[in-house]
Design goal:
Structural class: alpha+beta
CATH topology of the largest domain: TIM Barrel
Shape: globular
CATH architecture of the largest domain: Alpha-Beta Barrel
Radius of gyration: 28 Å
CATH superfamily of the largest domain: Aldolase class I
Oligomer: single chain
Number of helices: 16
């Protein structure tokens, strides 16, 4: 049943009861009308995808007294709705226990100002308070064009005493708790729920894997800290305050992403026995009158990565925020090489003997100039401002005299001498901060009595926009702040009870911060975020980047580079993922961590470049490998990265989800295969990074071609092009003389040199045109970066590539011309002039050129 188009459809199961004239009319209308969208656009490169008219359906239920619906993907039921519920006056009101009564059902249709036309169904529920007053809960499901389904909850009268009794300060599995530094507290349960989905074996028709983003940094050493993979419901979906978007997918790669769509800081989800419920977090004490929360479902045939990108594109479009990767060059911190003093860096709380941090950083600048390392910005970590010694919270966000002689004047001198842009770190606010009127300051704060499980963690949060305008405006005016790093987002959230109990305070806090940053032309980096913080950023244009890894500190250094999974979420939300710092040589004695060994500096730097986020060197003076650093950037420090962040390839996610690990595979032993792409006009390249492979691995051609934004969708009946239409290549030691070129058949790319705990390999895939493949700068990690390439023109046997760089920089590109028996490599160069660009030309001379000329 259903329409012939390729959209979200609604239908009714055979034998369904009449829900009323309006709803019956709606059902017939939906069955008769053509589909409003197709989730499968025409594939490029001549790949033909089969007709897909039934990707996603919303199927209405049978019983008018028990409203229900099913989510059907490609004709198979994935999810069946269960009943909504509401906490009110300390009890859970449900249809089952008779305390939440259905009083109205109706068909709805209209046009959303941002999403366009929709159809749907609404239900109205009431519950009776102890004083006899009635409290209303309105729920609705709406289906839109472009593969989007919205679920809405609205509370015209509000609700009171909604908090769940689920707070657990000593959970049975502390490693899966919200945060050990807040007494391992978890807070399961919801104050309200709609939709609620079940996986009743009698209804479910497809085995489903899941990917749940969870925890701080969206990244951890094991699935216990997120992201988490497994089969649902066999393996646990964690839910709760630390959790966020969930992808459900089958073994063919068809996928749904479900998440909050608004009220991001108070939305949540929870898992019951074979149920998955979405609503408001259980810590809320009340829901204000008129409060609403919505959740969204987005579907894709193209795999988990494509589903998350479609979901992220929807949210960014809905809230009107351009993604960071779409901006021309991005901000300076994600576009140019930088230096860091973060946790694990050589000078983290560790100035040079006899120097303060101002003197230390000036010597770093002097050394970098001598070594030809083009730093353009610096990150100042928590050592530079005043903190409460009792809990490390922020008392005064101004320069310490013992770090910068002269305080703010010393910071101004750093900027003036070096020309560096400054990213300045900040923590959570003390409830004794100097800025608070209660401590003699000028601004109002919401003060807290302590984390619910550990009262000594007692913080505060600014209560008005005027504070943020003052703080960030003063920092920019006095010493030239460029990017504000809000770190420790999770303890600020969990350690401020009002943020847990108030439905609106969390969003107000972040929106006010963002508004002030935008007003003063500043960027924001989020660090140690829960998924809810990242999702809130779609409403905040100033937030341009977020940490996707734990700190590059001694405890986590051996595994924290594994950001291929966390980058799926960060990149999808339009942010540049940050890997944190990098050491470029193996041994650097005398640093903040004493004598340590960095076993794989090349891999660390490759990961930073492929992240599309800040590339920040952590070396001490005299210890940098300038040659290694030069592979990451142009001579003026422009990072030569891909078009979008490298992410874990779908076949690795699906393999782990259905492989029986239950989300418990530790990162330190997990094979990694990631992919990114670079796009310049009509030309596309794919970059594949493999590390820690336990055995030789083959990446199929269809998986490679699924990487770009407009690549063919991954499908079991994919029909590929002729064999050998693509080539894979790499350069040993990044030397063109050591280049290897492999023609790719349908069997794909074999990875066999990355086995063992330290191995890694970096491949690139190109499509020759007219017998010529542009391989790019083989001396760089990303040889075909869109930041280097301006345009490409192919005119018969002539290929012209316009490139940008520093004045006087020589840019050398490699080309591969197909000849009988293989490919011939050639190099061509140009020197960048005063205009900042130059052109490289290559003319084919062999059989390929002759064929091209014959065809003209």
């Amino acid at each position: 049943m259903g329409s012939a188009g390729g959209g979200v459809h609604s239908e009714r199961r055979r034998g369904s009861h009449v829900l009323g004239v309006a709803l019956l009319s709606l059902a017939w209308l939906l069955l008769a009308r053509p589909g409003a969208f197709t989730s499968c656009a025409a594939a490029p490169n001549g790949v033909t995808n089969r007709r897909d008219s039934d990707l996603l359906r919303v199927v209405l239920g049978e019983d008018p007294s028990r409203p229900s619906f099913e989510i059907v993907v490609r004709g198979k039921t994935w999810l069946a709705s269960s009943q909504p519920y509401l906490r009110h006056e300390g009890t859970t009101r449900t249809p089952e226990n008779g305390t939440l009564e259905l009083v109205g059902t109706g068909a709805i249709s209209g046009a959303d100002a941002k999403l366009g036309p929709y159809d749907g169904v609404s239900w109205e529920w009431v519950t009776t308070s102890r004083d006899g007053t009635r409290v209303t809960m309105k729920t609705a499901v709406k289906w839109f064009p472009h593969g989007v389904v919205l679920f809405e909850q609205t509370f015209p009268d509000g609700a009171r005493w909604t908090q769940t009794p689920g707070l657990d300060c000593s959970p049975g599995r502390p490693e899966m708790a919200t945060c050990p530094a807040c007494a391992s507290m978890t807070w399961p349960g919801l104050a309200s729920a709609f939709p609620t989905f079940s996986r009743d074996p009698a209804v479910a028709q497809e085995d489903l894997g899941f990917l749940e983003f969870y925890g701080i940094f969206e990244n951890g050493e094991s699935g216990a800290w997120g992201p988490r993979l497994g089969e649902w419901p066999k393996d646990d979906i964690v839910g709760g305050l630390s959790s966020g978007p969930i992808a459900l997918f089958n073994k063919r790669g068809e996928a749904l992403v479900i998440s909050s769509h608004g009220s991001f800081m108070s939305a949540s989800h929870d898992q019951g026995p074979e149920t998955l419920d979405f609503g408001t977090m259980g810590s809320l004490t009340s829901l204000p009158a008129g409060f609403s929360v919505s959740h969204v479902l987005v579907a894709s045939r193209g795999g988990v990565n494509k589903a998350f990108r479609a979901w992220g594109d929807h949210l960014l479009s809905y809230y009107g925020k351009p993604p960071q990767w779409s901006k021309n060059g991005g901000d300076v911190t994600s576009s140019y090489l930088g230096y860091t003093t973060d946790n694990g860096a050589y000078y983290y709380y560790n100035p040079m003997p006899g120097e303060d941090m101002l003197g230390t950083l000036l010597k770093v600048h002097e050394y970098a100039n001598e070594a030809g390392i083009p730093y353009r910005h610096v990150l100042l970590d928590s050592w530079w401002y005043y903190k409460d010694p009792r809990d490390g919270s922020v008392v005064l966000w101004e320069a310490r005299e013992d770090s910068f002689a002269g305080g703010s004047a010393g910071m101004r001198r750093l900027v003036e001498v070096t020309g560096w842009a400054v990213t300045a770190h900040n923590r959570y606010w003390s409830n004794r901060t100097d800025y608070d009127v209660l401590s003699g300051g000028n601004f109002g704060f919401v003060n807290d009595i302590g984390c619910p499980c550990r009262p000594r963690d007692a913080y505060s949060v600014p209560s008005a926009q005027v504070f943020w305008d003052f703080l960030l405006g003063q920092a920019k005016a006095q010493w030239g702040l460029s990017t504000y790093e809000q770190d420790w987002l999770w303890p600020q959230f969990l350690g401020t009870t009002e943020l847990l109990e108030d439905a609106n305070l969390g969003s107000a806090w972040l929106l006010q911060m963002g508004a002030a940053a935008s007003a003063h032309g500043l960027g924001i980096q989020y660090c140690m975020p829960f998924p809810r913080h990242l999702m809130q950023s779609v409403e905040i244009s100033a937030v341009t980047q977020a940490r996707a890894s734990n700190d590059y500190g001694p405890r986590d250094r051996k595994w924290q580079w594994r950001i291929g999974r966390s980058s799926i979420l960060v990149d999808a939300l339009g942010l540049a993922p940050s890997k944190d710092g990098v050491y470029t040589t193996a041994v650097q004695p005398g640093g903040s961590q004493g004598h340590f060994v960095e076993l794989r500096p090349e891999l660390e730097l490759i990961v930073a470049v492929l992240s599309t986020g800040p590339v920040q060197i952590a070396d001490g003076v005299g210890f940098s490998d300038a040659g290694l650093i030069s592979r990451a950037c142009s001579e003026d420090g422009l990072i030569l990265g891909p078009s979008r962040a490298a992410t874990a390839m779908d076949f690795t996610l699906i393999g782990e989800a259905f492989g029986g690990g239950g989300g418990e595979i530790r990162a330190s032993s997990r094979p990694e295969v990631w992919a990114a792409h670079s796009e310049v006009g009509a030309e596309v390249w794919i970059h594949v990074l493999a590390a820690d492979l336990q055995q030789p691995t083959v990446v199929e051609l269809r998986d490679l071609l699924n990487v770009p934004n407009d690549g063919p969708f991954w499908d079991s009946d994919w029909e590929g092009e002729e064999d050998f239409a693509y080539v894979a290549y790499r350069a040993a030691a990044f030397d063109p003389a050591g280049a290897t070129i492999v023609e790719l058949g349908r069997d794909g790319l074999e990875l066999d040199d990355a086995s063992g705990p330290l191995g890694h390999e970096l491949w690139h895939v190109a499509r020759p045109r007219g017998g010529v493949a542009i391989l790019g700068e083989l001396s760089k990690f990303v040889p075909t970066s869109p930041r280097r390439f301006i345009s490409i023109q192919r005119q018969g046997p002539l290929t012209r590539v316009a490139v940008r760089g520093a004045q006087g920089e020589e840019v050398t590109l490699s080309f591969a011309e197909r000849r009988q028996g293989g490919y011939r490599l050639a190099e061509r160069s140009c020197v960048v002039g005063a205009s900042g660009d130059c052109e490289v030309q290559f003319t084919a001379t062999g059989a390929a050129a002759a064929q091209e000329q014959v065809g003209e």
